[in-house]
Write a structure and sequence with these properties.
This protein has 260 residues and is an alpha/beta fold. Helix content is 38%, strand content 19%.
Length: 260
Protein backbone atom coordinates (compact mmCIF):
# COMPACT_ATOMS: atom_id res chain seq x y z
CA UNK A 1 0.00 0.00 0.00
CA UNK A 2 1.26 3.48 -0.93
CA UNK A 3 0.02 6.48 1.07
CA UNK A 4 0.10 9.89 -0.60
CA UNK A 5 -0.74 13.29 0.87
CA UNK A 6 -2.31 15.79 -1.51
CA UNK A 7 -4.43 18.92 -1.59
CA UNK A 8 -7.27 20.36 -3.66
CA UNK A 9 -9.21 23.61 -3.82
CA UNK A 10 -12.75 24.23 -2.63
CA UNK A 11 -14.22 27.70 -3.15
CA UNK A 12 -10.82 29.36 -2.78
CA UNK A 13 -9.64 27.29 0.22
CA UNK A 14 -6.91 24.66 0.11
CA UNK A 15 -8.08 21.32 1.53
CA UNK A 16 -5.84 18.51 2.74
CA UNK A 17 -6.40 14.90 1.75
CA UNK A 18 -4.78 11.48 2.01
CA UNK A 19 -4.90 8.86 -0.74
CA UNK A 20 -4.09 5.20 -0.07
CA UNK A 21 -3.36 3.20 -3.23
CA UNK A 22 -3.03 -0.59 -3.37
CA UNK A 23 0.14 -2.30 -4.47
CA UNK A 24 -0.17 -3.54 -8.02
CA UNK A 25 -3.12 -2.82 -10.27
CA UNK A 26 -5.89 -1.14 -8.26
CA UNK A 27 -9.59 -1.81 -8.66
CA UNK A 28 -11.72 0.68 -10.58
CA UNK A 29 -13.90 1.07 -7.48
CA UNK A 30 -12.71 3.21 -4.57
CA UNK A 31 -13.83 4.33 -1.12
CA UNK A 32 -14.29 8.00 -0.19
CA UNK A 33 -14.33 8.43 3.60
CA UNK A 34 -16.19 11.55 4.77
CA UNK A 35 -15.32 12.54 8.35
CA UNK A 36 -18.08 13.31 10.85
CA UNK A 37 -18.30 16.23 13.25
CA UNK A 38 -15.09 18.25 13.43
CA UNK A 39 -13.09 15.05 13.29
CA UNK A 40 -9.87 15.13 11.27
CA UNK A 41 -9.37 12.69 8.42
CA UNK A 42 -7.35 10.20 10.48
CA UNK A 43 -10.48 9.53 12.53
CA UNK A 44 -10.94 8.79 16.22
CA UNK A 45 -7.54 7.60 17.57
CA UNK A 46 -6.45 7.02 13.95
CA UNK A 47 -9.25 4.54 13.20
CA UNK A 48 -10.04 5.93 9.74
CA UNK A 49 -6.37 5.87 8.75
CA UNK A 50 -6.08 2.23 9.80
CA UNK A 51 -9.33 1.35 8.05
CA UNK A 52 -8.13 3.02 4.85
CA UNK A 53 -4.89 1.04 4.94
CA UNK A 54 -6.74 -2.26 5.31
CA UNK A 55 -9.19 -1.46 2.50
CA UNK A 56 -6.28 -0.44 0.24
CA UNK A 57 -4.55 -3.68 1.22
CA UNK A 58 -7.59 -5.50 -0.15
CA UNK A 59 -7.08 -3.78 -3.52
CA UNK A 60 -9.29 -0.66 -3.37
CA UNK A 61 -8.08 2.97 -3.46
CA UNK A 62 -9.22 5.04 -0.47
CA UNK A 63 -9.31 8.81 -0.03
CA UNK A 64 -9.89 10.80 3.17
CA UNK A 65 -9.97 14.57 3.53
CA UNK A 66 -10.41 17.42 6.00
CA UNK A 67 -13.32 19.67 5.06
CA UNK A 68 -12.92 23.45 5.20
CA UNK A 69 -11.95 24.79 8.60
CA UNK A 70 -11.05 21.36 10.02
CA UNK A 71 -7.65 19.78 10.59
CA UNK A 72 -5.09 20.77 7.96
CA UNK A 73 -7.62 22.47 5.65
CA UNK A 74 -8.09 26.20 5.15
CA UNK A 75 -11.33 28.15 5.13
CA UNK A 76 -14.41 28.49 7.28
CA UNK A 77 -16.09 25.48 8.85
CA UNK A 78 -19.68 25.42 7.59
CA UNK A 79 -20.61 22.20 9.42
CA UNK A 80 -21.96 19.05 7.88
CA UNK A 81 -24.99 20.79 6.37
CA UNK A 82 -22.71 23.14 4.44
CA UNK A 83 -20.19 20.54 3.32
CA UNK A 84 -21.56 19.67 -0.13
CA UNK A 85 -18.89 21.71 -2.01
CA UNK A 86 -16.15 19.99 0.04
CA UNK A 87 -17.47 16.50 -0.71
CA UNK A 88 -18.05 17.30 -4.38
CA UNK A 89 -14.50 18.61 -4.88
CA UNK A 90 -13.02 15.72 -2.90
CA UNK A 91 -14.90 13.26 -5.08
CA UNK A 92 -13.68 14.91 -8.30
CA UNK A 93 -10.10 14.86 -7.00
CA UNK A 94 -10.39 11.20 -6.01
CA UNK A 95 -11.71 10.17 -9.41
CA UNK A 96 -8.88 12.03 -11.15
CA UNK A 97 -6.01 10.95 -8.90
CA UNK A 98 -6.98 7.29 -8.41
CA UNK A 99 -8.55 6.75 -11.86
CA UNK A 100 -11.62 5.20 -10.25
CA UNK A 101 -14.89 4.95 -12.17
CA UNK A 102 -17.08 3.85 -9.25
CA UNK A 103 -16.94 5.45 -5.78
CA UNK A 104 -18.53 4.22 -2.57
CA UNK A 105 -19.10 7.06 -0.11
CA UNK A 106 -18.79 6.21 3.59
CA UNK A 107 -19.75 8.46 6.48
CA UNK A 108 -20.44 8.00 10.18
CA UNK A 109 -22.72 10.24 12.26
CA UNK A 110 -23.30 13.65 10.66
CA UNK A 111 -21.07 12.67 7.72
CA UNK A 112 -23.67 10.00 6.93
CA UNK A 113 -26.39 12.64 7.24
CA UNK A 114 -24.47 14.97 4.92
CA UNK A 115 -24.26 12.29 2.24
CA UNK A 116 -27.97 11.57 2.65
CA UNK A 117 -28.99 15.23 2.50
CA UNK A 118 -26.97 15.60 -0.69
CA UNK A 119 -28.42 12.45 -2.30
CA UNK A 120 -24.95 10.90 -2.38
CA UNK A 121 -23.16 14.06 -3.60
CA UNK A 122 -22.20 12.31 -6.84
CA UNK A 123 -21.03 8.99 -5.39
CA UNK A 124 -22.19 5.70 -6.89
CA UNK A 125 -22.98 3.78 -3.69
CA UNK A 126 -23.33 4.68 -0.01
CA UNK A 127 -22.46 3.12 3.34
CA UNK A 128 -24.06 5.21 6.08
CA UNK A 129 -23.32 4.57 9.75
CA UNK A 130 -25.32 5.93 12.70
CA UNK A 131 -26.87 8.90 10.84
CA UNK A 132 -27.28 12.03 12.95
CA UNK A 133 -30.93 13.13 13.37
CA UNK A 134 -30.84 14.94 16.74
CA UNK A 135 -32.20 18.48 16.33
CA UNK A 136 -31.41 20.08 19.71
CA UNK A 137 -27.96 18.72 20.52
CA UNK A 138 -26.89 21.98 22.20
CA UNK A 139 -29.36 21.47 25.06
CA UNK A 140 -27.63 18.28 26.14
CA UNK A 141 -30.99 16.54 26.51
CA UNK A 142 -31.04 12.94 25.33
CA UNK A 143 -33.89 12.08 22.92
CA UNK A 144 -36.63 9.94 24.45
CA UNK A 145 -35.85 7.07 22.08
CA UNK A 146 -32.19 7.11 23.14
CA UNK A 147 -33.15 7.18 26.82
CA UNK A 148 -35.40 4.18 26.43
CA UNK A 149 -32.80 2.18 24.50
CA UNK A 150 -30.16 3.16 27.07
CA UNK A 151 -32.21 1.80 29.95
CA UNK A 152 -33.13 -1.37 28.07
CA UNK A 153 -29.41 -2.05 27.70
CA UNK A 154 -28.78 -1.23 31.36
CA UNK A 155 -31.48 -3.63 32.53
CA UNK A 156 -29.80 -6.41 30.57
CA UNK A 157 -26.38 -5.64 32.07
CA UNK A 158 -25.70 -7.55 35.33
CA UNK A 159 -22.98 -5.09 36.37
CA UNK A 160 -25.39 -2.14 36.01
CA UNK A 161 -28.07 -3.95 38.01
CA UNK A 162 -25.54 -4.70 40.76
CA UNK A 163 -24.56 -1.03 40.95
CA UNK A 164 -28.22 -0.10 41.37
CA UNK A 165 -28.81 -2.70 44.09
CA UNK A 166 -25.66 -1.73 46.01
CA UNK A 167 -26.29 2.02 45.97
CA UNK A 168 -23.84 2.87 43.19
CA UNK A 169 -26.47 4.83 41.28
CA UNK A 170 -28.02 8.15 42.30
CA UNK A 171 -31.72 7.43 42.75
CA UNK A 172 -32.57 11.10 42.19
CA UNK A 173 -30.79 11.19 38.85
CA UNK A 174 -32.30 7.83 37.92
CA UNK A 175 -35.80 9.11 38.70
CA UNK A 176 -35.28 12.19 36.51
CA UNK A 177 -34.01 10.06 33.63
CA UNK A 178 -36.86 7.58 33.93
CA UNK A 179 -39.35 10.44 33.93
CA UNK A 180 -37.80 11.67 30.70
CA UNK A 181 -37.97 8.19 29.18
CA UNK A 182 -41.68 8.00 30.05
CA UNK A 183 -42.53 11.05 27.93
CA UNK A 184 -44.16 10.47 24.54
CA UNK A 185 -41.56 10.07 21.80
CA UNK A 186 -41.47 12.88 19.28
CA UNK A 187 -42.05 12.19 15.61
CA UNK A 188 -39.39 12.73 12.95
CA UNK A 189 -37.87 16.22 13.03
CA UNK A 190 -36.94 18.35 10.04
CA UNK A 191 -33.46 16.83 9.78
CA UNK A 192 -34.76 13.25 9.88
CA UNK A 193 -37.32 14.05 7.20
CA UNK A 194 -34.70 15.78 5.05
CA UNK A 195 -32.21 12.90 5.15
CA UNK A 196 -35.03 10.46 4.37
CA UNK A 197 -35.99 12.52 1.31
CA UNK A 198 -32.36 12.88 0.24
CA UNK A 199 -31.65 9.17 0.42
CA UNK A 200 -34.92 8.41 -1.38
CA UNK A 201 -33.65 10.40 -4.36
CA UNK A 202 -30.33 8.54 -4.47
CA UNK A 203 -30.39 6.00 -7.30
CA UNK A 204 -27.43 3.82 -6.32
CA UNK A 205 -27.20 1.01 -3.75
CA UNK A 206 -26.97 2.01 -0.11
CA UNK A 207 -26.52 0.36 3.26
CA UNK A 208 -27.33 1.67 6.75
CA UNK A 209 -25.06 0.49 9.57
CA UNK A 210 -26.17 0.83 13.19
CA UNK A 211 -24.02 0.35 16.28
CA UNK A 212 -25.85 -1.51 19.02
CA UNK A 213 -24.43 0.60 21.84
CA UNK A 214 -24.86 4.06 20.35
CA UNK A 215 -27.40 6.73 21.28
CA UNK A 216 -27.13 8.41 17.89
CA UNK A 217 -28.13 5.11 16.25
CA UNK A 218 -31.01 4.74 18.74
CA UNK A 219 -32.36 8.18 17.87
CA UNK A 220 -32.09 7.48 14.14
CA UNK A 221 -33.83 4.12 14.33
CA UNK A 222 -36.71 5.58 16.37
CA UNK A 223 -37.89 7.56 13.32
CA UNK A 224 -36.83 5.15 10.55
CA UNK A 225 -38.58 2.15 9.03
CA UNK A 226 -37.27 -0.74 11.11
CA UNK A 227 -38.06 -3.15 8.27
CA UNK A 228 -35.81 -1.30 5.82
CA UNK A 229 -33.80 -4.10 4.14
CA UNK A 230 -30.75 -1.82 3.96
CA UNK A 231 -30.33 -1.85 7.75
CA UNK A 232 -27.44 -3.80 9.27
CA UNK A 233 -26.86 -4.04 13.04
CA UNK A 234 -23.67 -4.67 15.01
CA UNK A 235 -24.83 -5.25 18.63
CA UNK A 236 -21.36 -4.99 20.18
CA UNK A 237 -20.36 -1.73 18.48
CA UNK A 238 -19.97 1.70 20.00
CA UNK A 239 -20.41 4.85 17.94
CA UNK A 240 -17.02 4.72 16.16
CA UNK A 241 -16.81 0.91 15.74
CA UNK A 242 -13.53 0.85 17.67
CA UNK A 243 -14.09 -2.54 19.31
CA UNK A 244 -12.12 -5.37 17.67
CA UNK A 245 -15.22 -7.28 16.58
CA UNK A 246 -17.00 -4.11 15.44
CA UNK A 247 -13.99 -2.93 13.43
CA UNK A 248 -13.84 -6.24 11.57
CA UNK A 249 -17.61 -6.10 10.96
CA UNK A 250 -17.40 -2.56 9.56
CA UNK A 251 -14.55 -3.52 7.25
CA UNK A 252 -16.52 -6.54 5.98
CA UNK A 253 -19.55 -4.34 5.26
CA UNK A 254 -17.43 -1.88 3.28
CA UNK A 255 -15.64 -4.59 1.30
CA UNK A 256 -18.95 -6.20 0.42
CA UNK A 257 -20.27 -2.91 -0.95
CA UNK A 258 -17.00 -2.19 -2.78
CA UNK A 259 -17.13 -5.61 -4.38
CA UNK A 260 -20.69 -5.02 -5.57
Amino acid sequence: MIRRHLSFECEGACLAATLDMPDGAPAHTGLLIVSGGNEIRSGVVGASARLAARIAGAGYPVMRFDRRGVGDSEGMNFGFQGSEPDITEALATFRKQAKVTRVVGFGNCDAASALMLMAGAGTDALVLANPWTIEDAASGAMPVASLRAHYRRRLMNPAALWRLLTGGVSLRRLARSLAGAAKPAAGPGELALAIDAGLASFTGPSRLLLAGRDRTADAFLATWDKNDPRLRHCPSAGHAFLETEATAWLEAQLLEMLGG
